[in-house]
Amino acid sequence: MLGDAVQGDGRSFERLYRWLAPQVTKFACSRSAEDPEGITNEVFLRAFRGLNSFQGDSTQFRAWIFAIARNQLIDAHRAQSRRPERSDDVVPDRSVEGAEVTALDALGTQRVVRMLGQLSDDQRDVILLRMIGDLSLAQVAAIVDKPVTAVKALQRRGLRRLQQEVLEEVVRP
Prior knowledge:
By secondary structure, this protein is mostly helical. 74% of the residues lie in helices and 0% in strands.
């Protein structure tokens, strides 16, 4: 499938998209992206444009996609911070399910985003790339441009902080 996509087969690239797009979108949501689906589309557009220069197997492709996603999110956050906030922006309603399901999903997502917000950017990236991206320590180290030992330490400290946060929630009356 990957080899065919590199050779220009659109159907193979579409299968690659269907394979990884949900995880890239989750990664973007976890990083509080304003438009996670738009980020995902931009990631795969960039990947498609650079596919002829890609060399590697499906594991390396996955890491490459998440490296593009991380860079795209950094760019999007920078652009968003430069843009003045407008109160008249209308947020589109993307709910298709019932209101109860949507509300519960939103509460769960908000809780996760809030908890991840307690972490440093590096800790959050490492944990998300390891868990959502399902990437190895070496792949994450290459993406965040840090030694594997630093990635291990970031992961350990981040998970410890999340554990404390969960325990505090359980203990609170």
